[in-house]
Structure formats: C-alpha cells, structure tokens
Amino acid sequence: MKAYVYGAQGAAITDVAKPAPKGTQVLVRVRACGLNRADLGMTKGHAHGAAGGVGTVLGMEWAGEVAELGPDAKGLKVGDRVMGSGGAAFAEYTLADHGRLFHAPSNMNFDEAATLPIALTTMHNAVVTNGALQPGHSVLVQGASSGVGLMAMQIAKLKGASLVIGSSTDATRRERLKEFGADLAIDSSDPGWVDQVLKATGGQGVDLIVDQISGAVANQNLAATKVLGRIVNVGRLGGTHADFNFDLHAARRITYVGVTFRTRSIEEIRAIFDEVKQDIWSSVETRALRLPLDRVFAFDDIGAAFAHMEANRHLGKIVVTL
C-alpha cells in the first residue's frame, strides 16, 4: 500500500506492507488525513514522543471506513465511517485502538471529519477536564488561530465561558478569531497584551489560560491569570525553555498543569475519547463545533501540503485525501 514514510533522504510516498489488526485494533481504509504541527516536525526527522525516525509512517489523524476488526475490537463493524487519531495515518490503511475512534456523523464528509479528532480530544481535556472551566469563567487561548486553538475557544463558549480571549501574531488571522468564539483578540507579540487582558477582566486576570506558546510568554501568562486561576500547558511553540517567575506563580497561587498525549496510556486515551462522546458529541453532530478547511490536497501532493503548512499563512486545517 502507499504510505508517507520518513526515510534516510527525508519524507516520501513509498510502498509498505498493509497492516493487520490484532487484539482491540481496527484496520481502517483511510480516505482523508489532517495535518498537524507535530507531523511537520517529523517530516524533518524530529521525534514526537516515542514516534519518529527512519522508517516511520507519518501522520496522526484521519477519517475513513472500517475494513477489518481485531478479535477483541468492540462497538464497530466493517463498513462503519469513522474518524480517529493514532500513528501511521498517512497511508491507504492504518490501525487504531477501538477506543480511539469516533463514528463520523452522517452530515460530515471525510475531509471535514479528518479535521476534528485531535482538536476535540486535546482541547476538551485541556479546557474542561484539566482547565476545570465553569460557566461564567474567563478564558485566554494562546495560539488561538491553530486548529486546536479554534476548537478550544468554541468549547469554552459552549461550556459557558463569559469572556473568551484569543491570541494570534498574524493580523489577518486575528481578525477572524471572533468567528470562532473570541470576544477579544490580542497579539501575544505586543508587550502590552497583558494590560489588555487585565482591562477586559476588571484588573483580575482570566480564570484559565490554555497555553500553546509556553516559553516566550510564560511570565506574562502568570501576570494575566487571576489569583487561584489555572494555566494548562498544551504546547511549546514559544520554546521549551525560558525564565520563570516562581515568586509570581506562588503569589497568585496558580495551578499550572502540563498535558500531552505522548505519555498517556491507551486506557487514559480511551477515557478522553469517552468524555468527548458523553459531554460534547451532540454539538459535533449538529456542527456547532467545527473547524474550517483551509486547503485540501491529493495524497500525491502531500509534500505541497506540508510546504503550505510551513508557510504558516493558513487558518484552520490542511487535509490530504486518498
């Protein structure tokens, strides 16, 4: 089968053996794949948790049809339209655990379905589970113009946030954040952004920051979070290391939580998928929670799709179809 593999000369489409499902695994005929920033790093040879390196079939997010079930897979049948996340997604067939799948809504095509699994699971876990968002809370999403950032703002609004603030350093994308739930859009490269947040919150700061930038704004985040507020760190676009004001962290008694799928067990991931199904899935089915498709590429043009992502001028998801 065709797959997009990182090799000694870089990432390229090549032929690999079709996998076979074991245990609770499901074999899926892939129809569309969503691109993510971690994929871009892996095309350059970077590791993502335990994944990466020569011989790796790239990709983490997809939609398609169930082709075969492992002997212990439950809740699915051959032919079901599904969407999910896991390794080796950029291929004609991929394997996934039966608990790491959603049934694709009937009113959604494969391209649209492929945009959602990572954003839904990552940001429900960040905003609701670890962010402890309550109705009336105020939320700041750092890096809000990314696919997961757009989803974070929508989930915050859906769960009753009274004020949603989104950041983007790009003026064009910043203007569009209000389409996805932002009451206020800020530029995190502007030294005055903390003052804007404090003004919008009556001088107190926000209840919750969902931070995809980290290093570059770490201390500003502390200053923009209210006493007894929370910061959930889901990324490191601003760098993995930075100065950190421990005194300000202690003085404001901020709960600082780091989250990632890279170190989670399959049992933990299954629980996250179940929480999404139980809490917000009806809003996915009605399309109240959605992500814009920036561009769709044919699988043979996947290199151009990654070039488009690296140019960093897109809003929403880039998808490749098989």
TL;DR of this structure?
The protein is an alpha/beta fold and 322 residues long. It has 11 helices and 16 strands. It is globular.
Report on the architecture of this protein.
With 322 residues, the chain is an alpha/beta fold. 29% of the residues lie in helices and 28% in strands. The protein contains eleven helices and 16 strands. The protein has helices at 37-43, 110-113, 117-130, 147-158, 171-176, 193-200, 218-224, 246-251, 266-279, 281-285, 302-311; strands at residues 2-7, 10-15, 25-34, 56-57, 61-69, 81-85, 93-97, 101-103, 138-142, 163-167, 184-186, 206-211, 225-233, 255-258, 293-298, 317-321. Strands 3, 5, 6, 7, 8, 15 and 16 form a seven-stranded mixed sheet that branches. The longest helix has 14 residues, at 117-130.
> What is the average per-residue confidence, as pLDDT, rounded to a whole number?
95
Order of helices and strands: EEEHEEEEEHHEHEHEHEHEHEHHEHE
User: The biggest beta sheet, please?
Assistant: 7 strands, mixed
Low-pLDDT regions: none
Helix percent band? 25-40%
What is the count of DSSP helices, taking H or I runs of 4+ residues?
A: 11
The rounded distance between the terminal residues' Cα atoms is 11 Å
Number of DSSP E strands: 16
Portion in strands: 25-35%
Rg of Cα set? 20 Å
Q: What spatial form do the alpha-carbon principal axes imply?
A: globular
How does the helix and strand content classify structurally? alpha/beta
Organism: Bradyrhizobium aeschynomenes
Protein name: Zinc-binding dehydrogenase
Keywords: NADP
InterPro entries: ADH-like_C, ADH-like_N, ER, GroES-like_sf, NAD(P)-bd_dom_sf, Zinc-ADH_QOR/CCCR
